[in-house]
Design brief:
Length: about 300
């Protein structure tokens, strides 16, 4: 079954979202303090090596998102080439965070991994970034026993997070499917054991829902330390690895945002969607749909016309 939208159908989707935003509900009338940013993931043709960061930041700026996130390795590479500062200056969209996969189960490479993360962290800090997202390394889930690695995972997160804090960056666990910390129980086991003075919670709410958890319940349980988030929806279709534009899936996004508004109004909330072959929307269109949904909830964006 195809879910590809033609131009007319897409226009209707956007108009419906903007129309709803034009007539604020009670929720929209509430004061909204969170500033919504966006990750560059869906614009990346090849995961972890998105060559089209310029297009991503340009599109985000045109829609008025309050900042951007990309892979920490990309921040480092662009900094080394001297091209990141001009990009940020041209589109006047600040760099908020970097995403780094860290080795948590193999301690033999811990020293090298830590040195690399510190290098990436320095590049992130240089360009006024403020948070490092720590994603666990991938594992063969059918051969993996979490309990055997729990102690090294926790020790690794504590060490990596403290190193980022020493650079002036926040840091937090980003649980992820296919990694050493995937399930609801693994997430709870880790977050209840790490030193939360250094390692906060930086969930992907779409990933939580995809993994069978009630994403809103997980966020509620760790709300005091939920300071960074990938705001993603999930409906289990054939596109975008099962994820979908905001408001089209099963994640209780409004409840999650309401909770974070009350507890951590300065949290980094980053709109995100995975890439997909034969996608029914372009990256820009997914961001437009997400923006319309967030406007309906009362969120405001920068004036895109003034970002250039």
């Amino acid at each position: 079954m195809s879910h590809t939208l033609n131009r007319r159908d897409f226009a209707k989707t956007i108009v419906a979202g903007v129309g709803a935003a034009a007539f604020p509900s009670f929720a929209a009338a509430q004061s909204r303090k969170l500033k919504i940013g966006c990750t560059a993931l869906i614009w990346g043709a090849v995961p972890r090596t998105p060559e089209n960061l310029t297009a991503a930041v340009r599109d985000m700026a045109s829609l008025g998102f309050h900042g951007f996130e990309t892979f920490a390795s990309i921040v480092n590479d662009w900094d080394a080439k001297g091209t990141l500062a001009p990009l940020i200056e041209e589109y006047r969209t600040p760099l908020i965070s970097g995403y780094a996969t860290v080795q948590l189960t193999d301690t033999s490479t811990r020293k090298e991994n830590l040195a690399q993360l510190i290098q990436w962290g320095k590049a992130l800090k240089k360009h006024s970034g403020r948070f490092m997202v720590l994603a666990p390394n991938g594992v063969k889930r059918n051969e993996y026993t979490f309990s055997e690695h729990k102690a090294t995972i926790i020790a690794g997160l504590n060490e990596y997070a403290k190193a980022m804090n020493d650079l002036g960056l926040g840091a937090g666990l980003h649980q992820h499917t296919g990694t050493a910390v995937e399930s609801r129980d693994e997430t709870y086991a880790v977050m209840e054991a790490v030193d939360t003075r250094h390692c906060k919670f930086a969930p992907d709410v779409g990933q939580l829902q995809k993994g069978g958890a009630d994403a809103a319940k997980v966020v509620k349980d760790f709300l005091p330390i939920t300071v960074h988030m990938h705001l993603k929806d999930y409906k289990g279709w054939e596109h975008f690895a099962g994820y979908c534009p905001l408001g089209e899936g099963k994640v209780d996004l409004k409840a999650i945002l309401d909770m974070v508004e009350g507890a951590n109004p300065n949290a980094n909330i980053m709109h995100e969607l995975d890439g997909s072959p034969n996608a029914p929307y372009t990256p820009l269109q997914t961001a437009q749909i997400g923006k319309a949904y967030l406007q309906k909830l009362g969120y405001t964006f920068r004036d895109g016309d003034r970002t250039r």
